[in-house]
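User: Hey, my collaborator sent me this sequence without any context and asked if I could get a structure. I don't really work with proteins. Can you help?
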Amino acid sequence: MVFRLARLVVAAGFAAVALATGAHAQDYPTRTIKMVIAFPAGGPTDFVGRLLADKLKELLGQPVIIENKAGANGAIGANEVAKAAPDGYTLFLTTVGAVAITPNMRTDLPYDTMRDFAPVSLVVNNTTVLVVRPDLPVKNAKDLAEMAKAKPATYAFASTGVGSMPHLALELFQTAANVKFVHVPYRGAAPALTDLLGGQVSALFADAPVLMSQIEAGKLKPLGAASDERNPMLPNVPTLREQGYADTKADNWYGLLAPAKTPPAVIAKLNQAVRTAVSDPVVHEKLVKSGAVPAPTSPEEFGQLLKSEIARWGKVIREKGIKEE
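Assistant: No problem. I've predicted the 3D structure and written it out in structure-token form, which is a compact way to encode the shape of the chain:
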């Protein structure tokens, strides 16, 4: 009798918690939401985040503010969100790096992607594009590969840092084309672009939003897209796969995460808001014109993508012996 009474008390407690959680989710949000971005203001991630935040404010009826927490390849921002209260008021707009690449290069991270975060939605795919100086006598990726084969380990190929998506795209391309370039890592896209434009290096992989203005101005020549599909803003630039180089997909996607244990009903409400936001004609057009490809998903689909990307990039990093500097 006592045991049965105890079970009833416990069950009642769980029911009360469930009702409270449901009520919380139903009322959510009732105050300002913070969206953490692990990069400085003014960059492509910040651009997407602010565009998304403005629309979410309208859809959710509460302010959505951006907090830029740059450093440690996204780990500082990621850790802040991982330790935040799981109530839907602290979110993380992340690139693939902080949650799928950096965890494969460091053993001292204070967070675990699959344990400490709840997927909300993929937001955009950023096509990684191979570009060269206009004066380089090549028309496509095959020409560049043939030039490199003629003089192995001669041509300087920039990246935005060791273990960055541009670096990993380069590694995939070298393997697929059976060539070897001289990898020159920089601390970010700005100095890499400066040296490419100045002729200090020959080629670079980078996100389409980073390169679009230079491509449109004729200052850079695009040779191929490291993606499954052509970028809508670069319809005449074939993918590397179309040019005969398989397994070269290196999309630098952005996705929205919440702390683990955020109520499913809150996640569902956020997911629907993200889907509506990026489908809005004005937001959609601004994203596409910047070079980003809107790509909202369900939380489950984003969770599967996270899992597969952690495994895929972990394999590449181990096989190439890539170590964080």
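In plain terms: The longest helix spans residues 2-27. You can pass these tokens on to your collaborator as they are.
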